[in-house]
Predict the structure.
Amino acid sequence: MTIIETAQSPALAAYCAQPIFRPGPDVYITGNPYRRPIGPVGPASGFAVPATLAEFLGPGQLAAGRILCNAYESDMILLPAAGLATAKDDFDLFYGDEIRRLRDTVRPGLERYAFSFLDDAVPAPPVRTLDDLQEYFLAEVGGAGAPADASGVNPAVDPAAPVGGTMRAITECRHPEEAAGLHLIQLALDALTEASAMARNLGGSYGTEQSELFKIFNDEFGYGVYGAKHSTIFKEMLASVGLRTDLHAYWNFYLTSSLIGVNYFNWLTEDHRGMFRYMAAVTYLEWLFAQGFADTGVMLRAVYGDRVDAKYCDEHAHIDVHHGRMTYENLLLGLARAHGEIVIPELVRGIEDTKLLLRLGDEDFRAQIAWADDLAAHTGTRTDARDDASVTTLRPDDPFTTGVHDADLLVEVEDGAVHVHAWATDRPHLLEKGDVLHVPAHRLHGLKAASPRARVATRTVETAERTHDA
Amino acid sequence: MARVIVIDLSRHNTVYVGHDRYFVLHAGGPPLLVRDHCPHRGGPLSLARPTPDGRRLSCPWHGTKVGVSAVRRGCLPMVRSGDEAVVLLPDGTEPVSVLRKEVLANLPAETGPAC
């Protein structure tokens, strides 16, 4: 793919042009946590006009998500497992003066672009008092399938509960291991740096809530024992099913919604005005995570059998029962008690934001696995399409990246053969001369030549304008 | 070969044996040298507060209630004479050190309903 010329600012153009942010030939990026290709840099507005809810999965949000992820993580310590000597030049670049200057210049505008839609998309329930907040929160988690028990705290998990929703959808895929792998990859975006966003809220001086958050952080970091650190046991889970454990090895396969979701928490902790929203969002997530990770463990064992090391899921199914109670009692209600009604609307906002991002992320993931699971069914011969063919010649060592489009596309191989990478599988879909693949709008994909030279024509399908359900 | 140390209870209430920490617990009767380790996740029981009934310690990490009787069962053998106490340590070669720390577990029981 090529970089699209846009009206982007000189600083943004300079940031994206850094060598470590340009695509390389590899589908997976291993051994170097500083290489983070941004890919096509839309939208034409140059990110000056905030994305709407309808544009949530568009190419602008994907690019903004990648850039913001780079920006936030350049504030974290990341080192290559094989030693710094393997990537010293990229280390110097990633943390260098120029990139930090450009990052600080472009970040606020990108955050406005990426997150402003939440202002209109989430409701503002009339929650004003501490009692209102308790009633509202317990109603919300009850509605999400995790009601409080008789003592007012979240119940212990039911490991035998039948799984539904996305976890069940994964098990019902034709290629469940690829679908489960894609799910683990979305988790890896955050889990390999687990609680690093939380760490930004540990410093300072803000009362008992600070100490309560530290206890949770202490759990996430395994009480200082490397083998118990959650990111360590997450790596063991990845390795047990044959997935790479390098940070962002699967950078090209992070879905737009996953990037936005993780960036949301980094944004709220980078800009400390977001701390109340963050605390409430963490409370809501921790409450739901206990059963959620129990379900994830059930799914993984159904897909991979005994070979999966699901200790990470078991750990969260256990500890998040505590975290749900601790965050609810000591962060959400604690902050409301300490600071009064002035902060309650912001606490509620964090929960409403999170609810929406979870739903949008779930929809994005399920749409991706539904399409990627059966690319053969989406492959045929040429059909009616706009006469706007964009013809590209690909070679095996060309830079590889993935992207999304706002409209449905037809990808036709006019000569040679290409591999379609729609999820992180070592068995990509092969398109040969004359094959045409339908790529729905917003579906993440990348093309790589499977012959010494391949010519590919891409056309836009005539469809009614797509909108995202609010 | 068993190891024995002598500590001055007027100056010390904590013993490190390698990475294992013990603290002097006053829970009625003679003081006990107990392991500073919640069986749930290893939380520091020395920073626990007694429950209102005084029978359990509420771990500061996750609120887990640990029975004092269970803590007592894991104490190190200790013979006290005045402020001087002779302690029988576990076998091993780990370095031993003694010091004084704040021990919240010896505070009065929390007010409020027992749970």
